[in-house]
TrEMBL record:
GO CC annotations on file: membrane
Protein's name according to its UniProt entry: EamA domain-containing protein
Every EamA domain range: 8-130, 146-288
InterPro entries in the record: AA-Vitamin_Transporters, EamA_dom, EmrE-like
Amino acid sequence: MPTRDRLIAAFVAVLWGLNFPAIHLSLEQFPPFFLVALRFALLAIPTVLLVPRPTAPWRWIGLYGLGFGVLQFVFLYWAMSSGMPTGLASLVLQSSAPFTVLLAGVLLRERITARQGAGILLAVVGLAGIAAHRAGLAGGATLVPVLLTLCGGLGWAVGNLGNRRAMQAQPGEPFRLLLWMSVVPPLPLLALSLVVEGPAEIAGSFQGLGSTQGLLALGGLFFTVVVATLVGTGLWTALMGRHPSSTVAPFSMLVPVVGIGASWLLLRERTSPTELAWGALVLAGVLLGSTRRRQAEPTTSAVAIAATPSPRPVSPSPSVVVAETLTGAPTAAESAASASARR
């Protein structure tokens, strides 16, 4: 992976880490469920009008949108509006990685290797440590936001499975699939907002948009939709098209580092050393499970065979980066080499 692409991958991780303080600013103005509906509506409307529909089956697009768009962000925004520290949210949401492995093993019958199992165990121990620490604070009241964030991670894992099945059915459309996934959340989330938050609270959130708080909220929403989603995901998609997912995926481990650092710097939010220590264990577990053992150098004949021209492989969607690497699925480069060897 050349230095330029490493810098791009790190840049995307920075954008995604900054997305958590941006969400925090938006939640200062808008109720959580309505904010999620608004976020995806801003993507869904131009998508329906301008972007051709992907050819993947609707049931997998719907599952992708339900898990990634609805469940993940409903629980994440609910947790953050209920007191979940912004930086800690960026860390606990990494629970999507072990959840993805477990769901893929149970529902898709994908084999879990010993290395992946060890990574899951480490991540679970770290998450349990954070939960236990939070349970001891304020009589356990601060545990609820952590549990909600874990539910968000589970929702992301469900979306990963839908994305994976959609890409298996029709590869080559990752960015279009991402955009059309955004068509699923707005209507059910708007209905949820109307029932839970009510029309009065929704209407009240549009008052004072010209104030400092309102402008910061709009800026946070713009960053989430345009910068983090479109720019960040677009760059990540390009990287996944040029390199194996196992090479690119570990850069996502920078996201909670940036999220915690940005929350401390911009929001003056402090994370306890105990939680940081448990969080480091979570990251170690996810990193262990998402990297492959280095394989032996190929022989001269194997290199000659692999050098035979073949069609460029299609990369997986950026939203299944961790799913592709953790579930043991072959990367694009591995699949291409295998196909060439068979010829």
